[in-house]
Amino acid sequence: xxxxxxxxxxxxxxxxxxxxxxxxxxxxxxxxxxxxxxxxxxxxxxxxxxxxxxxxxxxxxxxxxxxxxxxxxxxxxxxxxxxxxxxxxxxxxxxxxxxxxxxxxxxxxxxxxxxxxxxxxxxxxxxxxxxxxxxxxxxxxxxxxxxxxxxxxxxxxxxxxxxxxxxxxxxxxxxxxxxxxxxxxxxxxxxxxxxxxxxxxxxxxxxxxxxxxxxxxxxxxxxxxxxxxxxxxxxxxxxxxxxxxxxxxxxxxxxxxxxxxxxxxxxxxxxxxxxxxxxxxxxxxxxxxxxxxxxxxxxxxxxxxxxxxxxxxxxxxxxxxx
Amino acid sequence: xxxxxxxxxxxxxxxxxxxxxxxxxxxxxxxxxxxxxxxxxxxxxxxxxxxxxxxxxxxxxxxxxxxxxxxxxxxxxxxxxxxxxxxxxxxxxxxxxxxxxxxxxxxxxxxxxxxxxxxxxxxxxxxxxxxxxxxxxxxxxxxxxxxxxxxxxxxxxxxxxxxxxxxxxxxxxxxxxxxxxxxxxxxxxxxxxxxxxxxxxxxxxxxxxxxxxxxxxxxxxxxxxxxxxxxxxxxxxxxxxxxxxxxxxxxxxxxxxxxxxxxxxxxxxxxxxxxxxxxxxxxxxxxxxxxxxxxxxxxxxxxxxxxxxxxxxxxxxxxxxx
Lengths: 322, 322
Hints:
The structure is a homodimer.
Chain A (H helix, E strand, L loop, with lengths): L3 H9 L9 E3 L6 E3 L5 E11 L10 H19 L2 E11 L4 H17 L3 E9 L3 E11 L14 E5 L4 H11 L5 H12 L5 H6 L6 E4 L4 H12 L2 E5 L14 H10 L6 E5 L4 H11 L3 E8 L3 E5 L20
Parallel strand pairs in A: 4-5, 9-12
Antiparallel strand pairs in A: 1-2, 3-6, 4-6, 7-10, 7-11, 8-10, 9-11
Helix pairs in contact in A: 2-3, 4-5
């Protein structure tokens, strides 16, 4: 069996591009990164555990993609430009086929985003992937959660709920058409981090978050940090194309609370409405206005008749759901 | 059962000190850190897995200390000043007693080193702790592994082998005196990262690494990256005080290959010998000169008679040892 150091060298050491902010990559006690002058380093960590964030036996190439994508999504939500990432990986055995596939998915996305693997750790243990991403953002231009004001528009990128639908296909054997199944599983396994949209929203959005746990829960974080409430119109929700085959109750539930969407939810003043639309068109990402922030606390979701929808669950929570 | 967000808020959210380089801490999509002007950010990640890096049922307070200490040790080996860290934690259950003890051990060390918890992730899963640390180091003054030159002195801080002895006490029920047991377990559970020594060695040491996997393996990384060999005199090794009760073969084996020492191994030109000693005295850490680098490849460990010792193992490797 190859040693840990052999494995790391074979799959996770690549020459660092000298043009980047990464001054020293894999292979020393620490990596060295210098953000550009007058910029800060934006940092986020996510840990993915087998049986919790992905099913046992999940395709390693998709897992490599998704592990990095969910972290890049946090940089996108901050308006930060990705620079690099570190990878800590616990594996039950040094399975070379698995490692080769995982690395392929991981580096395909890393190359697409022009970022470096700068270091990490590999160990034996229950399959666990912990990635920390690093990006740069001009001081005071980060898209924080606490900047929304009352009567801001609330926007979401792309569409919602298809990833959750994909999970239902896998875990509860929900039957969909072949086309819808493909769409739902693609959304579940291959989320696209909205990096270019996040960068373009600097100076336009007042607050942003990425939707990982579900729209209502994640928008709730913006509202709490900005000390606001909000009203959302359920009819305006951009329902995923596969999810549209389901009845309306399921559509709302998955779009509002499904989780794993990795879209951006952001707020912007009414005065920026045209700029939001133009900017989104420029970067080629659909955006939909779904409601407005309010001074009155609480999140209300209204149906077509203007009545409050009863929300079944808050959002996905790793400790309170089974 | 409290939700994930409650747990994070209760144990892992503390106000960020405004005097630090940390501009935004826990509670947004990303943390924001800006290193001082003309400095780079040094970054390292370590993942600790139950049953692999610590025994099931390990004292959570010690584990909190050690999880951060082993990461700070990487910053020390780079000559970097610690600024902050992120914590990703997988827990089998939201055990509040465990979390309170773990947080106590973690933050006691964080406070001692004046660093901030800047973010992280908490999830359900097999007990796994992944910490990423951030420090700052002036550009081009980092203690890298690739800077050693032929005929440099090789030094180690503190003493070696007691942590491994502690592991033997726990796993093979080796009997020691009560005093020696206490020393050995303290070294195993409560490593002291050599941060002040690492900072003081900037501009003096030509290369440095921290000893996590064992002296010969870790020194081997310096030699490989610096394209050198080395000779070590076994008689010069600073044997841990508890380990001195064991026979000489065990002493050498644990000091050379024991692992978990978290001492610094560093190289420095002969011309710096007096400065190394004076600097170590200033920061109150013992240092011992154990050998010299050589142009000829390979690491030779010589006994009192000048004969090469047969080294049983290379170093601890998470994939090739059971």
